[in-house]
Design a protein that fits this description.
This protein is mostly helical. About 75% of the residues lie in helices and about 0% in strands.
């Protein structure tokens, strides 16, 4: 069932002309997801700096999507 929910980057980013931007966005999504799952599932520490940099990554994802269009 999980396999049906996953959409490969090549299928979902067909409208993106800059493949470098698409790769950077997918990499950052994976990094943020990994950190958040570590916090939720494994009770990793959530101090100010960790949350600050996660927020910075999310802002970078949004910024890359905005300027790439």
């Amino acid at each position: 069932m999980l396999g049906y929910q996953y959409v490969p980057p090549s299928q979902s980013d067909r409208g993106v002309t800059n493949i470098g931007t698409a790769y950077a966005v997918w990499t950052e999504v994976g990094a943020v997801g990994t950190v958040l799952m570590g916090i939720i599932l494994f009770n990793e520490p959530t101090d100010f700096w960790r949350l600050f940099f996660i927020t910075t990554l999310i802002a970078s994802i949004i910024g890359l999507k905005v300027v790439s269009n």
